[in-house]
Amino acid sequence: KGIILISGRTVTDDSNAGDDSGGTLEFGTKALAGALATRMTIDSDGNVGIGNTAPGQPLEISTTAIDAIVEISTWSTTPAHTSTLKLFKSSSATINTVAETASGEVLGTIEGSGVHSGNVVKVASSIRFEQDAAADGDSVPGRIVFCTSDLDDAGDPTTRMTIDASGKVGI
What we know:
Layout: E1 4-11, E2 24-31, E3 37-42, E4 48-50, E5 59-61, E6 106-115, E7 121-131, E8 142-148, E9 158-163, E10 169-170
Parallel strand pairs: 4-5
Antiparallel strand pairs: 1-2, 2-3, 3-4, 6-7, 7-8, 8-9, 9-10
């Protein structure tokens, strides 16, 4: 009920008076009788914050008092259509340039982190996707490594299970 106005504004860094570099771009929503609420920020480094006005990563999604959920949905009657979370690694330092990856390279990681009693963020568990052997002309052999932390690892999770390229499981 009501109308929502979508607005964007550039906010400059006061330390650079008269210079628009170093500013951020904020996108917000505003109810007719309400104040502008920032919903998304793009900072001067190109980091995007959704629900976060000071993102520390290329994309940071933050929320309070509810679950932070990233949903990837596919709406199709075709069985082959699917939703995919793609973690991709190239051995090139140039964006959109592919270069062969090597055996042992980490191709992607999913991490679960918490905060220890000294108020420092530490990884509690992870799933790592690695290259298991040299690539050939049509494939990249992979392995999946499952890691968890205990009280003795100082936030460096220990490998607990590995599934290698041949399908063998090591625990």
